[in-house]
């Protein structure tokens, strides 16, 4: 009898010890942010001045400064998604925002550092916006043949999608149009001055560069219909990340006159590298989610950041630090 009691007591002590270990691990997992905020320096690659990437990135920087006062965030302008992906992959930047198709393209080409890329959060969708003067005779993508068309800077996400759209419409981007490399910073002005006939832009809604253009110049959007998106999907590769959708009538009310515009959308991802500190990434992920409403009051696209969908960063696996944060807030 005495021996049985000793065994039971030993099992009870072992169970208690195990319980304390589990409890300790749970506290470590759920409450890492009780520690002092991380410091140091990070480089954040954004986009062009009139685009959503830079607007959003700038306000994220303010949120990071509030949550992590010892963290120095160095913001970097860029031409867009393709340059952003390359910068993070090669160590020229630590965090960035990029469209999923640009990420997939970089991975499919097996470019330097592609295997080290990791996701932090799915943010919001970019919408393809093909802009012409209101009195233009251009009504379809096919009508761009022989026209002066800005297809975005060479290393931008705009260029990546515009080339694919033109190809799907049976046009060679190099020979069937007169291509220009304007982005959202210069394209609207050149359209207004009559120096180009149309320009492509891929960005969140609304994009400030187009909001400003609408105040002084009448323009309209050329639809990109579902049939064209189907042809894009037939191209394979990164085109699978495009989905047919409608640009809501509320995006540019004075331009759209209450009508939606058929187009395509692609998800934007906040991303980093595998070797970036997990604790820093966890803090940064929390800051992105918690600052949504504050930033959304100024950058409409930020309102679309959703904790329930933020974890879906395909084609990237989640960074360990981001995964730790999402697990800590899982209901």
Which structural category do the helix and sheet elements fall into? alpha/beta
Number of strands: 10
Radius of gyration: 24 Å
Shape: globular
Distance between the termini: 46 Å
Query: What is the helical fraction, as a range of percent?
Result: 40-55%
Major beta-sheet overview: 10 strands, mixed
Strand coverage percent: 15-25%
Mean pLDDT across all amino acids: 91
Order of helices and strands: HEHEHEHEEHEHEHEHEHEHHHH
Unreliable stretches (pLDDT < 50, length at least 5) are 1-33
> How many DSSP helices?
13
Summarize this structure as a short list of keywords or feature phrases.
331 residues; alpha/beta; globular; disordered N terminus
Structure description:
The chain is of the alpha/beta class and about 325 residues long. It is about 40% helix and about 20% strand. The chain has 13 helices and 10 strands. Strands 1, 2, 3, 4, 5, 6, 7, 8, 9 and 10 form a 10-stranded mixed β-sheet that branches. α2 (about 50-65) links the parallel β1 (about 40-45) and β2 (about 70-75). α5 (about 155-170) crosses α8.
């Amino acid at each position: 009898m005495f021996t049985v009691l000793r065994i039971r007591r030993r099992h009870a002590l072992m169970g208690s010890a195990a319980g304390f270990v589990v409890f300790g691990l749970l506290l470590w997992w759920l409450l890492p942010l009780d520690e002092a905020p991380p410091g140091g320096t990070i480089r954040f690659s954004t986009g062009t001045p009139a685009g959503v990437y830079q607007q959003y990135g700038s306000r994220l920087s303010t949120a990071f400064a509030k949550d992590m006062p010892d963290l120095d965030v160095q913001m970097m302008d860029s031409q867009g998604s393709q340059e952003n992906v390359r910068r993070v992959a090669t160590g020229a930047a630590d965090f960035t925002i990029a469209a999923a198709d640009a990420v997939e393209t970089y991975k499919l080409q097996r470019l330097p550092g592609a295997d080290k890329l990791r996701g932090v959060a799915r943010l919001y969708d970019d919408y393809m916006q093909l802009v012409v003067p209101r009195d233009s005779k251009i009504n379809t993508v096919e009508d761009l043949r022989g026209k002066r068309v800005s297809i975005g800077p060479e290393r931008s996400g705009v260029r990546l999608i515009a080339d694919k759209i033109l190809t799907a419409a049976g046009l060679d981007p190099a020979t069937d149009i007169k291509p220009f490399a304007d982005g959202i910073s210069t394209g609207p002005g050149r359209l207004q001055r009559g120096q180009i006939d149309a320009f492509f832009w891929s960005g969140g809604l609304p994009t400030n560069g187009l909001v400003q253009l609408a105040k002084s110049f009448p323009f309209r959007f050329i639809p990109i219909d579902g049939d064209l998106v189907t042809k894009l999907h037939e191209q394979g590769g990164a085109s699978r990340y495009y989905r047919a959708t409608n640009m809501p009538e509320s995006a540019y009310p004075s331009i759209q006159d209450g009508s939606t515009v058929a187009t395509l959308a692609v998800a934007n991802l906040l991303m980093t590298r595998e070797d970036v500190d997990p604790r820093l990434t966890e803090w940064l992920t929390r800051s992105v989610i918690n600052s949504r409403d504050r930033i959304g009051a100024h950058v409409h696209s930020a309102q679309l950041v959703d904790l329930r969908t933020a974890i879906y960063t395909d084609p990237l696996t989640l960074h360990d630090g981001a995964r730790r944060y999402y697990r800590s807030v899982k209901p």
